[in-house]
Amino acid sequence: MDKLPPGSGACCLPRVSGITYIQVGERGDSVGMSNLDTVFQQLFALRRRPEDTSDDELVGMARKYNYIPRQPAIEAEYAVALRRAYALFISRQEQ
User: Fold this and answer.
1) Domain boundaries, the chain
2) DSSP structural state of residue 17
3) Distance CA 91, CA 71 (A)
């Protein structure tokens, strides 16, 4: 079994191909999102760094494959979580 950080909540989540779990919001709710690898590969191919990618771009690209409520506060929480996940994706690509 993979070692996961304590409190990640990922211990009880099913492993489904193509689904990436991210922690969204102050409570760190686990949300399964599909095709994030596709989104991140597109950004990486464009040589976009997490800090150079706008919230609208991150949320908009993820929204092509996932439901994200159209409420500014929720979109902002998703943007933070997506940026964090994208930074992790990049760090893995650069190893």
Assistant:
1) 22-93
2) T
3) 30
Report angle CA 70, 51, 63 to the nearest 5 degrees: 25
Cα 88 to Cα 36, 37, 84: the distances in Å are: 12, 11, 6
- Between the alpha carbon of residue 81 and those of residues 15, 25, 32, 57, 75, the distances in Å are 19, 8, 12, 13, 10
Q: How far is CA 72 from CA 29, 32, 51, 68, in A?
A: 17, 20, 20, 11
Per-residue model confidence as pLDDT tens digits over 16-71: 678 999 999 999 999 999 999 999 999 999 999 999 999 999 999 999 999 999 99
pTM for the full predicted model: 0.82
Which residue is it, tokens 């949320």?
59
